Amino acid sequence: MIHELLLALSGYPGTIFTWNKRTGLQVSQDLPFLHPSETSVLNRLCKLGSDYIRFTEFIEQHIGHVHQQEHHTNQSNQTGLHGIYLRAFCTGLDSMLQPYRQTLLDLEQEFLGDPHLTISHVNYKLDQFQLLFPSVMVVVETIKSQKIHGCQILETVYKHSCGGLPPVRMALEKILAVCHGVMYKQLAAWMLHGLLLDQSEEFFVKQGPSAGGAAANQDEEEEDLGLGGLSGKQLRELQDLRLIEEENMLAPSLQQFSLRTEMLPSYIPIRVAEKILFVGESVQMFENHNHSPSRAGSILKHQEDMFAAELHKLKQQPLFSLVDFENLIDRIRSTVAEHLWTLMVEESDLLEQLKIIKDFYLLGRGELYQVFIDLAQHMLKTPPTAVTEHDVNVAFQQAAHKVLLDDDNLLPLLHLTVDYQGKDSKEGSGPRDGATPPQDTSPREVPPTGWAALGLTYKVQWPLHILFTPAVLEK
């Protein structure tokens, strides 16, 4: 019977120990030679066997048939549970069960050597798992019942690991370390190469604008990000490129990324996540637009290998250390920010761009506009027509030549827009970023004069589009 017991505890029930989906593993009721006290000890052991069988079923379901699983996820399978974090959790769970399997093997060796050992010996040997299995089963049941997905698995395991039972804490910390391996790989791809490897939407960075004001209520977002006094909220305003999607002023390849705050584990503060987002976006933007040979080289100054090695070292740590993690993120962010500073302020001459904005948007070149008003007055007094925009731009060019505007490269980047009644909204050469955009009350309302419909667009050169977003030019 001892061998029957060991087999049942290994997940292979038989006639003495029967398996029932609802009640689990139990001793057969109709065995005349069993004393009630023996039955109770055996049933106590059977609870371990039941948990073990359920663990192995869960692991088999989510790891055993990877290709089949992927095929199911495409058809949005019934369980709704899928993804690489779940597979990592199962891998960690499987390694946690290894000592239990080893103990069963040792017990079999002992019983082969000494057939007079009792059931109490089995009970004594397996007693260490009596606390561990039910606690880990709670985590598995939580993941199954609440359909926990992606980085939320990290949060669930972390919460359950903060307990007072050392064996449970250590086992869950080992599982958490395996799950962190996936997060570090996604971080390395995103921060060092600008790649968002996230097919099942499990990572806390996503493509597209942030959903509503979910993150806007976070107090921590007002924290200083170390970007020259920028707060998280200002950075988001700075990078708010929603207007690009609507009006497509810049290259359509410029994508917006944002945080998926519901996926962010509670032990990673939002300020750190903001830095991760900033680094990835910068690297991604640089990789996508790095066409000219003069800018050859990487935004990380060829330190990718060093940073990758350090991320790997963090991955090897048994416990997640926020201090080490944030220090590394800060170092990567500083390297990227320094490179962007050089690129924007020195190579792209940010101060010159600010002067252009002042001269043309804020009418700093008063003499240019004085001449322009004289030339265009007769065209813009009346309601605009299809040719008004062209005529106005010709007048603008003439005004520039009259006041000896010497920068020939500048004029092609500036374009006056006139919004008239019959104009198709898609036809416009750009968004209406003028000082006086037409009223939005009714798009088909006839502007009383051309002045009311006048706008100014400016083609911002890469990489200054990070600062001069359409939202900024609109203001």
From TrEMBL:
Could you give one GO CC term from the UniProt record? spindle pole
Q: Residue ranges of region Disordered? A: 422-448
Gamma tubulin complex component protein N-terminal domain residues = 2-347
Q: Its principal location?
A: cytoplasm
Q: Output the Gene Ontology terms for molecular function.
A: gamma-tubulin binding; microtubule minus-end binding
Domain Gamma tubulin complex component C-terminal residue range list? 350-475
Q: Which organism is it from?
A: Lates japonicus (Japanese lates)
Q: What does this protein do?
A: Component of the gamma-tubulin ring complex (gTuRC) which mediates microtubule nucleation.
What's this protein's family per the entry? Answer: Belongs to the TUBGCP family.
On whether Hydrolase is a keyword of this UniProt record, the answer is no
Check the record and name the InterPro entries matching this protein: GCP, GCP_C, GCP_C_sf, GCP_N
- The name under which this protein is listed is Gamma-tubulin complex component
Sorted alphabetically, the Gene Ontology BP terms of this entry are: cytoplasmic microtubule organization; meiotic cell cycle; microtubule nucleation; mitotic cell cycle; spindle assembly
List UniProt keywords, sorted A-Z.
Cytoplasm, Cytoskeleton, Microtubule
